[in-house]
Design a protein that fits this description.
The protein has 429 residues and is mainly alpha-helical. It has helices at 2-52, 69-72, 80-83, 88-99, 106-113, 119-130, 147-153, 170-181, 192-195, 208-239, 244-256, 261-275, 283-307, 311-319, 324-352, 356-360, 381-389, 395-425; strands spanning 57-66, 138-144, 185-189. The two termini are 49 Å apart.
Length: 429
């Protein structure tokens, strides 16, 4: 007997080094896996930030513009309609010619005028419309430089390349250097990125239209998916009879949560646009599609939160005379609310980053105007990123990365909000 115990002990002790060795290898492999994942994540964020941080600054040129009445309103009328017909491009060109009086020749003057963006004339038009008394005065105005000038200032165009290999030629580089030396060409915070809609000109392109479109879509999604999802979860978990029909519904809800998002886009195209004739490319249709996609996620999260409430609380409420409805709405739902909100916010974050279903309902169109409501045509932030990534201009590369940074920032805030809500309202039993 003792001999058998000694033999078993010896076998156990002999196997301990192998067990400890396997445990150490497993820990090393686990740490290696975590390190590799974090490394790729850091590289991803670093590449996005390095590519996009320059878009938050824009090169601007200071022009001393004489607001010539002969070019703005030859008749002397100051009505908005008359002022809108002024030759503001001529004012911009004349200001540049005054800065470089030595530049002559039609071709050189055309190249000189292209140092500033076409948006400069619209900026002057807005200035005059806001203050008609400025006509006849000389005002210093900071106007956006062209995309090529912006790339030169930011070092994205190699000046050492042969002239024929650069989009900016040697005379233009000399003019840029003169503007920089005199303090008339500076990098300033790019407010246009957050105040403008989309544009064919990179220096004028902004994400405000896409942000408003995403905002209206999420508004529609929350208004529909949250109450319907919570109501469905409460019914299935607390009131629905246990039979094969409810089992079928539960299986379908779980299956819908795994359906590819583009399928919901096809469904929205067929039902909301082709059959219901709702406006194409509108946040309303996008919100309806995202509601269908988010609804299973909210139902599953809400059911899990309701199921996590201890049965003793339900039994105590019923034992004190509460009805089934009172028990659910006054005791179960308040305790399950942190998990429900967390699942809802995570579902909204997923909806915010979706692109495929929005492409199917036409939100890939080029739209300049800022949407004023959920029925106006609009883009969304992920679709805007897709459009800019497909643009051939080099200046759109940094704006694509900047839009990705903004989108990741929103996703980070939403996920952080979910964590804080859970910690704030979570109760231990």
């Amino acid at each position: 007997m003792n001999h058998g115990r000694q033999t078993a002990r010896q076998l156990m002790e002999a196997g301990l080094p192998r067990r400890y060795s396997r445990e150490r290898r497993f820990r090393v492999l686990g740490m290696l896996a975590v390190s590799v994942g974090l490394t790729f994540l850091v590289l991803f964020f670093a590449s996005i930030v390095m590519s996009g941080y320059k878009a938050f600054a824009q090169s601007q040129v200071a022009l001393d513009v004489y607001l010539d009445p002969a070019l703005i309103s030859p008749t002397g009328a100051t009505s908005p309609e008359a002022l809108a017909l002024g030759d503001y491009s001529g004012l911009v060109r004349q200001s540049l010619y005054d800065l470089f009086p030595d530049v002559s020749g039609r071709r050189d003057r055309r190249a000189l005028a292209q140092l500033v963006s076409v948006g400069a004339s619209y900026q002057l038009q807005n200035l005059v419309a806001a203050d008609p008394d400025a006509i006849g005065e000389t005002r210093r105005v900071w106007v956006p430089a062209s995309a090529d000038v912006d790339m030169v200032v930011k070092g994205s165009i190699d000046r050492t390349l042969p002239e024929e290999s650069r989009p900016v030629k040697d005379p233009e580089l000399a003019w840029i250097d003169r503007l920089t030396e005199t303090g008339r060409l500076q990098l300033r915070f790019n407010t246009a990125l957050f105040t403008n809609g989309d544009s064919r000109d990179p220096e004028l392109a902004g994400i405000r239209g896409a942000l408003m479109g995403s905002f209206y879509m999420l508004l529609v999604t929350v208004a529909l998916a949250f109450p319907i999802g919570v109501a469905a979860a409460v019914y299935l978990e607390e009131f629905a009879p246990r039979n094969r029909w409810t089992d079928l519904i539960e299986v379908n809800i779980n299956n819908l949560a795994a359906v590819p998002s583009i399928v919901f886009g096809l469904l929205g195209l067929a039902v909301f646009i082709n059959w219901a004739s709702l406006p194409r490319s509108s946040p309303l249709v996008g919100g309806l599609v995202l509601s269908l996609m988010t609804l299973p996620v909210i139902i599953i999260a809400a059911r899990a939160s309701i199921k996590a409430v201890p049965p003793s609380i339900k039994e105590a409420a019923l034992g004190l005379g509460a009805s089934k409805m009172q028990m659910v709405f006054q005791h179960v739902l308040p305790l399950a609310l942190p998990g429900i909100l967390t699942g809802t916010i995570i579902g909204m974050a997923r909806a915010l980053g979706e692109t495929a279903p929005l492409l199917m309902i036409g939100m890939v169109a080029f739209i300049v105007d800022i949407p004023q409501g959920p029925l106006d045509p609009s883009a969304a932030l992920p679709v805007q990123i897709y459009l800019w990534a497909d643009s051939p201009e080099r200046a759109f590369v940094e704006r694509t990365s900047a839009a990705i940074i903004v989108l990741l920032g929103f996703l980070l805030v939403m996920n952080l909000t979910a964590v804080l809500l859970r910690r704030r309202f979570e109760r231990s039993f």
